[in-house]
Amino acid sequence: MSDLGLDFYTKAKKQRTTGTILRYLSVFSGLAAVGVAANNGRRNLAYGLFGGQMVFLLGSMRYSNMSAQSLDRALWQRNKDVLFPPR
Q: Taking the domains of the chain in order of start, what are their residue ranges?
């Protein structure tokens, strides 16, 4: 009903997409680290990839949390508009 609620909703969708991409990057980084450690035995590269995995995972968690907050705000705004329509 209001533009503010729609803005929060589109923001939540973008943040959720970013969180999903970071989550997949975390998984791929972990698999690459295991592959590098198993095949080449290059520990420094494997540790770097594991560190990257943790960074991607923390970023994913942050964006997922921000997405949930934005969605809550959008729902709150929608309910407010339904209960107290603007005049």
A: 3-83
Amino acid identity for residue 4 in this structure: L
> What is the rounded distance in angstroms from the CA atom of residue 11 to the CA atom of residue 76?
15
Phi, psi of 29 (to 5 degrees): -65, -40
What's the CA gap between 36 and 30, in Å, rounded? Answer: 10
Q: With 0-12 CB in 10 A as exposed, 13-18 as middle and 19+ as buried, what is 39?
A: exposed
- pLDDT digit string (tens) for 3-59? 899 999 999 999 999 999 999 999 999 999 998 888 877 888 989 999 999 999 999
